[in-house]
Every structure is written in C-alpha cells, then in structure tokens.
C-alpha cells in the first residue's frame, strides 16, 4: 500500500466515520455493552476492544492503524508521550537481573530511564559501535537499544548488520526511528523487532501535541498493551490522536520540504570557517552517507554542527544572536529551533554520548532556506572570536 494513501486516507472511509472528511473524535471515557458476557469478553481483550479510555478508543485506534501500516508492522500502540512509549517498551522486555546494551548515542531521557531501572536490578552498558558489543554482551543481556541516525551526533547505524548480530545472540532489538519518520526509513523491514517514535516531532508536525508510539509484531505489542500500557497510565487522548491523524495527512509534503531546506542549510554550514563539522547524514562528507543511502529514502532536517570553540559562553552568544532560529527544545514543527546540549544537559550524560561543548543542534523548519542561512551567517560572524 502506498505511503501517501496510508497517511491521507487509510481507515477514513469506513462506515463509523459517517462520511465526515475529518474522522470523529470519540471523547467519551467509557463504552457500554449489551450484556455482562460481552463486557467480560471485551475486558479480556482490552488492547483491541473499546472499554475505557485508558485502553483505547476509535480515534486512537485509527492513528495506530495508520502508523502500523506506515512502518510495515502488524500493530502499533500510541502513548501520551514519547517517553511513555519508550519506558513501557523497555520495561516489557526486561526483568530484574537482565542487562541492556545501548548502541551509540540515544535520547537523554532514555539513558536516564535506564539508570532509573538500576533500582530494580536491570543494568545497562553504552557502547560506541558494533565491535564493542562483542566484549560488552553478557549472559544476562536481553535487549539491544539504538537510534539511527543517533542522538545529537547523527551517526548512521547499519541496521541490517546490527539486527543480524543481535538475532544470532537471541537479543530483542528496539530502535527509535523518530528522526527519519516511517516515510524515510522502515527499520522493521531490516530486522528490528520494535520501533518507537515521538509523535510530537515530524509526525505531529505543528508543535501542538505530545505523544509516542511503539510498532511491531502482535506477539510483542499485545502483552505490552495489556500490562505496561495499562499500568503506567500513559494513555494517548483522542484529541491528540486526531492531531496525529491530521499531521499524517501532510507528512509526505512537509518531509519533502524539510529535506530540501535542511540540506541547503547544512551545505552552507559545511563550508563555513567557524564550523568544525556538520553532522548531517545527507551530506556526502558524512561518514555514514553511503549506508544512509542504502537504508533510507530521504533525510529529515534535524542535524548538528560543531562550532570552532570550547567556550560555553561563545556557544550561548551564538544562540542569542540568532533571530529566525528560536531557542528551544523539541523539533519537527514549522518553526526553526536551536539548542545546545552544553548549556542544558548534565555533563555526565554528554560524556556518555560523546557530545562536545561546541555542538549545536538545529531543527530546520519550513521557513525560506535563504532567510535561515543569512541568520546563521550573521550569528557566526558576530559570536565567535
């Protein structure tokens, strides 16, 4: 099935929509039944039946069906935040005494959650590349977690190679695919067991919702939906699900524009004397560019540059001089955003991820590329000594 059709029309012509061009938002928290027997059967299958908002409802279910189809997965489960999806997914796969391998740099709160799990007897080890996994794996290792492109550094992981290695050793693989969206990369087709996303980013696309999703086979999604999803309480609201559905309708068009503008800005920065490096997988100079071309069909507009400085003050001055890039966290909306981990992330986390002081993250939005390039050029000239 064509991705654009999935984004725009999958499930929207069914009888329950009553011909509405925007699928109805089911606001009710409770669904009732014709008999006690029917209620009992529904509760036993609450991951698929409409019983109570905390389980699922028709609006959320439509968003889940679209996301599963886009990722070429059997099922999807939407959460009230990206971390809701990540924490529930990891928790569903490990028990006390288990060990998690983390490959490359991953989202900071994911690392914090893994540290939190240590109080329950779950340990983890960060490794820089697949070669280090051979020495870091233990008899108790159950899970390999990674992102590609990686957090902040945007290194590219050879997904098929990593999943092949993990499968030979009996490990479950979980990958965060938020950077690429399901349009530009489909990890499940390359052997990943479960894929997670923050729906707050490109999929939502308008900086007006917080949500997450996990996609994969029913054998892994169903137990997660019946336990961690229910018990953690990170349910997605039907209103946020409706925003996901609307975001998906324009996702193909927006991602094409993000790719074009992001590459234009990255190419400008790659030739600037005040910039040591530009970490964008779409640039031919990127170490993982060849692998990216093999496993991705496009590039988003989130990347980082490394300023030619070791001064946090100069990094801050660069951010302050920007006029069109707004200072803030998150990414994937219309507006262009800038953030610098050295100014906000605890030093131990930065050290674990190998993030230098001069690293600056850019989320290139949908404003004209020329305007953004002029803004960056003026800030670089005026902030670094």
Automatic annotation (TrEMBL):
Instruction: Name the keywords, alphabetized.
Output: Pyridoxal phosphate
Asked if the Swiss-Prot or TrEMBL record annotates the protein with the keyword Plastid, the reply is no
Provide the catalytic activity annotation: L-methionine + H2O = methanethiol + 2-oxobutanoate + NH4(+); L-homocysteine + H2O = 2-oxobutanoate + hydrogen sulfide + NH4(+) + H(+)
Question: Mind telling me which GO cellular component terms the entry cites?
Answer: cytoplasm
Q: Name one GO biological process term.
A: transsulfuration
InterPro entries in the record, alphabetically?
A: Cys/Met-Metab_PyrdxlP-dep_enz, PyrdxlP-dep_Trfase, PyrdxlP-dep_Trfase_major, PyrdxlP-dep_Trfase_small
EC class of this enzyme? lyase
Q: What are the protein's GO molecular function terms?
A: homocysteine desulfhydrase activity; methionine gamma-lyase activity; pyridoxal phosphate binding
**Which SUPFAM superfamilies does the entry link to?**
PLP-dependent transferases
EC annotation from Swiss-Prot or TrEMBL: 4.4.1.2
Cofactor(s) recorded for this entry are: pyridoxal 5'-phosphate
Q: Would you identify the family this protein belongs to, as annotated? A: Belongs to the trans-sulfuration enzymes family.
Name of the protein in its database record: homocysteine desulfhydrase
Give the species this sequence originates from.
Nonomuraea phyllanthi
């Amino acid at each position: 099935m064509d991705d654009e059709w999935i984004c725009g029309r999958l499930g929207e012509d069914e009888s329950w929509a009553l011909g509405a061009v925007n699928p109805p938002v089911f606001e009710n928290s409770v669904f009732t039944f014709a008999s006690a027997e029917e209620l009992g059967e529904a509760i036993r299958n609450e991951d698929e039946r409409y019983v109570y908002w905390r389980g699922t409802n028709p609006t959320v279910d439509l968003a889940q069906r679209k996301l599963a189809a886009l990722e070429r997965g059997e099922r999807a489960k939407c959460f009230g935040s990206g971390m809701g999806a990540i924490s529930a997914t990891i928790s569903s796969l490990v028990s006390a005494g288990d060990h998690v391998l983390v490959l490359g740099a991953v989202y900071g709160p994911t690392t914090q959650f893994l540290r939190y799990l240590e109080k329950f007897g779950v340990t983890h080890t960060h490794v820089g590349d697949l070669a280090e996994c051979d020495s870091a794996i233990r008899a108790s290792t159950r899970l390999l977690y990674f992102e590609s492109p990686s957090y902040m550094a945007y290194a590219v992981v050879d997904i098929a190679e990593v999943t092949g290695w993990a499968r030979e050793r009996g490990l479950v693989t979980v990958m965060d695919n938020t950077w690429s969206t399901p349009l530009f990369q489909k990890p499940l087709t390359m052997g990943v067991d479960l894929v997670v996303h923050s729906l707050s980013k490109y999929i939502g696309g308008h900086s007006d919702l917080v949500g997450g999703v996990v996609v994969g086979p029913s054998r892994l999604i169903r137990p997660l939906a019946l336990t961690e999803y229910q018990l953690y309480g990170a349910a997605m609201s039907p209103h946020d699900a409706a925003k996901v559905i609307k975001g998906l309708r324009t996702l193909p068009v927006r991602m094409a524009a993000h790719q074009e503008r992001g590459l234009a800005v990255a190419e400008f920065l790659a030739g600037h004397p005040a910039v040591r490096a530009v970490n964008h997988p779409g640039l031919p100079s990127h170490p993982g560019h060849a692998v990216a071309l093999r496993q991705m069909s496009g590039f988003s507009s989130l990347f980082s540059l490394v300023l030619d400085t070791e001064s946090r003050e100069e990094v801050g001055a660069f951010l302050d001089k920007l006029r069109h890039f707004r200072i803030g966290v998150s990414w994937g909306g219309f507006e262009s955003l800038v953030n610098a981990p050295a100014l906000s992330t605890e030093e131990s986390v930065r050290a674990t991820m190998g993030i230098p002081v001069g690293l600056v993250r850019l989320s290139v939005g949908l404003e004209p590329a020329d305007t953004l390039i002029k803004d960056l050029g003026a800030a670089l000239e005026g902030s670094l000594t």
